[in-house]
Design brief:
Elements: E1 2-3, E2 9-10, E3 13-22, E4 26-35, H1 41-55, H2 112-132, H3 134-145, H4 156-183, H5 185-194, H6 208-222, H7 256-280, H8 284-292, H9 309-320
Antiparallel strand pairs: 1-2, 3-4
Helix pairs in contact: 2-3, 2-4, 3-4, 4-6, 7-8, 7-9, 8-9
């Protein structure tokens, strides 16, 4: 690729793959890349891969929820000033004592601004708890705060930690719904029974470990299950003698290899879309629709035929270039 203004140079990229395993939690991988003409290309690519693998476990994921801000950099590309973070995004203080300027007045009582921040975080926790369902919210609250409900928690820093974990879980719920859209509710119910869940609703998912198992099973199924051929590309159900090509045309049958290729292409697209959605803080459907550029929509994924594989692959390639 040509780079530079006055003279053209050919430069490749250094790509590093990192797999991070945490005993009891599982393993995640990440990719890092940097232009080869950077003297620290390998170090930069390795650091990027490691950070991406860590983010899959939730480390630093709250940063995606912060409002963006511009800061000036020095000659070494380091910020000249540190951006201000909200209280919920700061590490929990080891000391229980308060200092002046830390949200308390001279009598040790919370200031009005600190009380407002606490109210905002508590409201955020309530909203996220409704999104992830009763069981998931309750299990997280018990694990993090040692309480049955967030209303029993007074420590704002603990509420901030709970909010960050609930936000991460909400992204998992979005992945769950996206995979269910692809494989169908019947298959989701079948997997829920296999996992010994009491039912197939969101409130029946007992904890994050169960959510992770369900997502992995559904996404594996999404990459292997052929799409239904009960509708045409525009989402219209064909008539009794109408195939995907139009009226009067018999339904075309596809070879198992074609259906397998379709499933693999769809699975790769969903995985890349999920990565980009986490990276950019977007919804999965929005990412897919943007990458498809009008060729298809996320809502139509389940109805696409093998002849749509080139369009799916093109959308996947667009997402793969997003760093």
């Amino acid at each position: 690729m040509e780079r530079g203004n006055s003279s053209a140079r050919i430069s490749g990229k250094v790509v590093v793959a990192c797999k991070l395993t945490i005993e009891g939690l599982g393993a995640h991988s990440g990719l890092g890349e940097e232009w080869a003409d950077n003297e620290n290309a390998a170090t930069a690519a390795e650091a990027q891969a490691f950070k991406r693998a860590c983010s899959c476990f939730g480390l630093g994921r709250y940063l995606y929820d912060l409002a963006g801000s511009w800061v000036d950099l020095d000659g070494k590309k380091q910020p000249l000033s540190r951006p201000k973070l909200p209280d919920w995004a700061l590490p929990k203080r080891k000391s229980s004592g308060r200092h002046l300027g830390d949200g308390a007045n001279q009598n040790g009582q919370p200031t009005e601004s600190a009380a407002l921040d606490g109210a905002a975080v508590r409201q955020r926790v309530r909203s996220l708890s409704g999104q992830v369902g009763f069981s998931l919210a309750r299990s997280l609250t018990i694990a993090i705060a040692g309480a049955e409900t967030a209303e029993e928690v007074d420590d704002v820093s603990v509420l901030g930690t709970l909010a960050a974990k609930l936000e991460d879980t909400a992204r998992g719920v979005e992945r769950l719904r996206a995979a269910t859209t692809v494989v169908g509710q019947a298959k989701c119910s079948e997997i829920c029974r296999a996992l010994n869940f009491p039912g197939d609703s969101l409130d029946d998912v007992p904890d994050r470990a169960g959510l992770r198992q369900l997502i992995e099973a559904l996404e594996k199924e999404a990459g292997a299950t052929p799409m239904r051929q009960d509708r045409d590309g525009a989402g219209n159900a064909p008539g009794p003698n109408q195939g995907p090509g139009g009226a009067g045309q018999p339904a075309r049958s596809f070879a198992p290899r074609e259906m397998r290729n379709l499933g693999e292409a769809r699975g790769k697209l969903l995985r890349e879309a999920q990565r980009v959605a986490r990276l950019k803080g977007l919804k999965l459907a929005e990412v897919v629709d943007r990458a498809a550029k009008g060729a298809f929509q996320f809502a139509d994924l389940q109805r696409l035929m093998p002849d749509a594989v080139p369009a799916i692959q093109a959308a996947t390639q667009i997402l793969q270039r997003v760093a």
